[in-house]
Amino acid sequence: MPKSIKDEEDHAIAVGDQVETKYRGGKRRGEVEAVLGNEHDVEKQGPDLGVKVMNPPKVVFRDQHGHRVSHNPGTLSHVEQEADLKE
User: Fold this and answer.
1) What is the 8-class DSSP label of residue 55?
2) Residue 74's closest CA among 10, 2, 22?
3) How far, in Å, are 1, 66, 82 from residue 61 at the CA level?
4) Could you tell me where the DSSP H helices lie in the chain?
5) At the topology level of CATH, where does 1-63 sit?
6) pLDDT tens digit string along 15-37?
7) The pTM is what?
């Protein structure tokens, strides 16, 4: 059974999850489009994603500005639904 990819709070990350990461004094937030756990996943899905992925594991998502980005899973955290309502 493959090891699941987890965020900085040790929660499993799956396609469709809302995640965020701190980036250059702000935050990047978006819905997970792909979870690439190894080189095989990168070779299989990478070209279709339109983003350069190096040194897996990586989580690919589109940020709030529409840019597709990839980040290390350990830098991500899940977005609380209540936090979305407050903003």
Assistant:
1) S
2) 10
3) 25, 9, 21
4) 39-49, 81-86
5) SH3 type barrels. (2.30.30)
6) 999 999 998 999 999 999 999 99
7) 0.82
Q: Nearest CA to 33 among 64, 61, 75, 4?
A: 61
> What tokens appear for 34 in the block?
């792909």
Structural domain boundaries of the chain?
1-63
Q: Give the CA count within 13 Å in the CB-facing half-sphere of 81.
A: 1
CA distance to 25, 80, 84, per residue, from 36 (Å): 26, 23, 26
Give the alpha-carbon dihedral of 63, 24, 47, 37, to 10 degrees: -90
3-state secondary structure of 18: strand
